[in-house]
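User:
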Amino acid sequence: MLSRGGLYYTLQEGPPDRPPLVLLHGAGADHLIWPAQLRRLPGQRVIALDLPGHGRSKGIALQRVDALAGRILAFLDELELHQATLVGHALGGAVALSIAVNAPDRVSALGLVASGAHLPVDRALMDPLASPQLAALAVHAYLERAFSPTASPALVAGARRMLQRCRPSVLLADWQACASFDLRAEIYRVTAPVWVACGDADRIVPVSCAHFLTAQLPQARLQRVSGAGHMLPLEQPEVLAEGLSRFLEDASERYLRLELQVLHERNRVRRA
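Assistant: Predicted structure:
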């Protein structure tokens, strides 16, 4: 793994003349929430990072989405990346959306996976994390809801190990960030093309959150995955990778058209 600004990340090299794909994980997770099918998406330069206090990244967990968004923007600055395609799962989607709302020129395309313009949080899951004795029970209760009934025990066990690597205080901070997040009145500011992916068996972030996004954002497309739960990237990585690839192809064509428009306008001004 590489490190920049205290954040660890993996990098798949790709076309340098296009904005990279930056993958942002959700609460209590790390970059491994994105299986190889997504971290190594063909034809893309892909960065998958660990948020502050997660995985191998330094620092403490931040309790607000806007603070996390600021760290990601600083990370992009460290890498001298003016624009990126941001794709986030759950809390990571909230961070990506916050950047798209408040710094739209930094986002060439936006992907929201099992996420929304607000994230409902069950206090019955969050409150026990304040007690070290109850934290394991909270994680167990969360995982019972996070996967679809058809998910394999091995897949659930792998997610359990990932969440157990996360300190309870970090997971609590993540869920506090989710609980205070609400951009429903501001998402009209998003100018980038948007891909919204959800599992129709998601019991953490309901499908209604995805439908709200697509109703409010005319440039959004919805991919609804049958039988998948909240852990959509782990449950259906091939389906998700295929949908993301199609979306990025269309977004790339849009990006090229905008580049040509800018070039044409500059030439027109020079001639005037």
